Amino acid sequence: MGGIQSGQVDTVMREDRVFAPPAEFAAQARIGSLAAYEKLWNEAAADTEAFWGKLAQELHWFRPFSKVLDWQEPFAHWFVGGQTNVSYNCLDVHLGTPRQNKAAILWEGEPGDTRTLTYLQLHREVCKFANVLKHLGVAAGDVVSIYLPMTPELAIAMLACARIGAVHSVIFGGFSSTAIAERNNDAGAKVVITADGGWRRGAQLPLKANVDEALEKSPTVKHCIVLRRLNNAVHMHEGRDHWWHEMMDGASADCPATPLDSEHPLYILYTSGSTGKPKGIKHTTAGYNLYVKKTMEWVFDLRDEDVYWCTADCGWVTGHSYVVYGPLSCGATVLMYEGAPNWPDEGRFWEIIEKYRATIFYTAPTAIRAFIKWGDKWVDKYDLSSLRLLGTVGEGINPEAWMWYHRKIGRERCPIVDTWWQTETGGIMMSPLPGAIPTKPGSCTRPMPGILPAIVTDSGQPVPDGQGGMLVMTKPWPGMLRGIWGDDDRYRQQYWSKVPHHYLAGDNARRDADGYYWIMGRIDDVINVAGHRLSTIEVESALVSHPDVAEAAAIGRPDDLKGQAVAVFVTLKSGVPNEELKRELKAHVRKEIGALAVPDDVRFTKALPKTRSGKIMRRLLRDIASGKHQIGDTTTLEDFSVLASLQKDEE
Ligand code: WTA
Questions:
Q1: For ligand 1, atom 11: residue with the closest CA
Q2: 74: preceding bond cis by omega (within 30 degrees)
Q3: Which residue from 323, 420, 638 has its CB within 8 A of the most atoms of ligand 1, so it is best to mutate?
Q4: Number of structural domains found in the chain
Q5: How far apart are alpha carbons 543 and 568 in whole angstroms?
Q6: Backbone region of residue 458 per phi and psi (left: phi > 0; alpha: psi in -120 to 50; beta: other values)
Q7: How far apart are CA 108 and CA 97, in angstroms?
Q8: Three-state secondary structure along 50-77?
């Protein structure tokens, strides 16, 4: 049985297409050649602290730092002794410059209402709201939960907290009252900010009602601020609940940013652990701010004329780092959209790109696979010629989906940045730099300057290039999480114990001969067939390259003979879900990657179970495929009807 060491993963993927950065793009880019990237990366690697210390001069400092890094593994203190403020770096630095009257936020609500906020206007709103928070007794270090739809007020609330040193905890609008209460209690939140509702696919989300229920079980919360979005009747609890607009009416627009220690906590963001209690990932001030600003510049090669659209909700880390803090630190014009991509029809995103002449579009593979399934006719109706750069985040992108994105949306002109990172990493860790690094479909290519990844076995031994293993980081970086809120043991346990002295990302990956990284899926999702450890994404990508397949999820189910057998769940964009197609898909996998990975079971389904941020929940599929009646934790599941129909098919 395969003589590989524990922690290694076999690769069966063959992908050799390479796309050089378009010459016109490279000519104008900040980092415009592979040589320039490598020079920068090498310089950074030679002395990471000197590298970050020099870049940190780009932030505004109320008081300079005296030391770049104090590393008490696994606890990092970056820019020791310095004082800065993230809200200042996002707003005040642009005042009195030509950006003052530039649009900071171009917003479109789902029903089609629109708003524009310039940097000056956004600054004013943030100052006023910061005074509202102060008026309610919020002080530096207090935790504020934010449960709002994707409106400008969501960004305003985050920036207002940052301005006075309150720690925000944004809770995605799709979460239930139980999830809100759990987060309020874990963080000891003092205030909750919500709305009378929000729009999603034409329906009204009962945000305030959810909060009311949550507050019955959230003893630390003293005040609730309610934004009027839908204008519908909501219950207002006397003494506890306050209307946003009434509080803002009398608030002063004078609120200087509080000088905060470099390591002052900026936010907590809960991510679902694979089991049990959600983890409050903690990010702090200066290092995070620097990291999102620099990666924004490197990866998106942002320029002042750009209309930049990241489709993520601020309930996720992508919304924190690349809707709010990264782009605003760079003085970008950020496009923000409240609602669903298929409302009122499947052309909505393309309509928005045409209308605002968006130049950069950053979205998730799950969305791209949905666009492919919905059909090209929606894309063809709109003029997408304003786009110059495309990005993806959240999951691996299957090479065929990448090719569709490249041809259909990018018209073969736009580089694609496949960005690998995590809530824990704060910002993008590996990605092509669009003017410098040739892209390969399915690879997040190379690490950012200052980032030193490695691929290792269970015992921390490096694996040879071409072989899969566990992805780790060998050096701390400024954007890294500073811990799990209130749980240092869990932090140590989860990220710093399996492989000594390295940050364990929890993903498998391999590096090819060109030094390119290929993410192979979560460590826990590896499929072990007759001693061969297969990566989920490779089997899935082979299936997605079949013309009838829209999406696929591969998992291992117990098998007496082989240890595990490969089971795949497939959604179709065309074709008939019958035995013949099953045989054809098996033959297709055999042709693409070989007999080893041929699925034993192929199951057609209308949809796959996903998390609310669009990741396939392979764990639930494992439970179903192995015939378990007790399905594990489903709190993060996006659509329960999917699970119900999968279970029904089972019987
Ligand atoms: C996965 C999202 C492959 C990965 C920013 C990671 C990816 C987890 C990619 C973090 C990518 C994210 N290619 N896999 N480009 N981006 N992932 O915390 O498994 O929501 O560990 O952060 O998503 O998800 P999170």
A1: 420
A2: yes
A3: 420
A4: 1
A5: 9
A6: alpha
A7: 26
A8: HHHHHHHHHCCCCECCCEEEEEECCEEE
Residue 109: give the domain boundaries: 87-258
- Can you tell me the mean pLDDT for 83-100? 98
Give the residue whose CA is nearest to atom 5 of ligand 1: 422
Ligand 1 center to residue 343 CA distance, Å? 26
Closest Cα to atom 1 of ligand 1: 395
Say whether pLDDT at 185 is over 70.
yes
DSSP category for residue 410: S
**432 CA → ligand 1 middle, Å:** 15
Q: Which atom of ligand 1 is nearest to the CA of 271?
A: 18
Mutate to test the pocket of ligand 1, among 428, 519, 537 (most ligand atoms within 8 A of CB): 519
* The pLDDT value given to residue 1: 34
Residue 404 lies in a domain: no
- Residues 221 and 192 sit within 8 Å (Cβ to Cβ): yes
CATH number where 132 lies:
3.40.50.12780
Task: Name the residue of 422, 429, 504, 616 whose CB sits within 8 Å of the most ligand 1 atoms, as the mutation to test its pocket.
Answer: 422
Q: Of all helices (H) and strands (E), which one includes residue 544?
A: helix 536-544
d(CA 48, CA 40): 11
Residue 300 within a domain: no
Whether 134 maps to a domain, the answer reads: yes
Q: Which two tokens stand for residue 514?
A: 């060109």
Q: Using the mean position of ligand 1's atoms as its centre, give its distance from the Cα of residue 394 in Å.
A: 4
Of 191-205, 268-282, 285-299, 441-455, the poorest mean pLDDT is in 268-282
Angle at 177 between CA 128 and CA 147, to 5 degrees: 20
468-482 residue pLDDT tens = 999 999 999 999 999
Q: State the CB neighbour count (10 A cutoff) for residue 586.
A: 19
Distance 466 CA to ligand 1 centre (A): 21
Say how far apart CA 582 and CA 594 lie, in whole Å.
Answer: 16
Query: What are 141's two structure tokens?
Result: 């270090």
Number of alpha carbons in the 13 Å side-chain half-sphere of residue 359: 14
Question: Judging by DSSP bridges, how do beta strands 75-80 and 279-284 pair with one another?
Answer: unpaired
Tell me how long the chain is. Answer: 651
Whether the per-residue pLDDT at 275 is higher than 60: the answer is no
pLDDT tens-digit profile of 25-51? 999 999 999 999 999 999 999 999 999
Q: How far is CA 412 from CA 19, 388, 403, 461, 490, in A?
A: 10, 10, 9, 40, 45
Sheet strand arrangement including 469-473:
453-456, 469-473, 503-511, 517-522
- Residue 126 CA to residue 559 CA, distance in Å, equals 58
Instruction: Please tell me the distance between residue 81's alpha carbon and the centre of ligand 1 in angstroms.
Output: 33
Dig out the tokens for 88 from the structure. 């200042």
Question: Residues enclosing ligand 1, CB less than 6 A?
Answer: 271, 317-318, 393-396, 418-423, 444, 505-507, 519, 522, 613
397 CA: nearest ligand 1 atom:
13
Whether the link from the prior residue into 344 is cis, omega within 30° of 0, is: yes
The 10s digit of each residue's pLDDT in 200-249 is 999 999 999 999 999 999 999 999 999 999 999 999 999 999 999 999 99
DSSP labels, 137-179:
T--TT-EEEEE--SSHHHHHHHHHHHHHTPEEEE--TT--HHH
- Cα of 226 vs centre of ligand 1, distance in Å, is 33
Asked, for residue 160, whether it belongs to a domain, the answer is yes
The three-state secondary structure class of 46 is: helix
191: left (phi over 0), alpha (psi -120 to 50) or beta: beta
Nearest CA to ligand 1 atom 13: 396
For the CA of 444, the closest atom of ligand 1 is 15
Cβ–Cβ under 8 Å, residues 182 and 228 = no
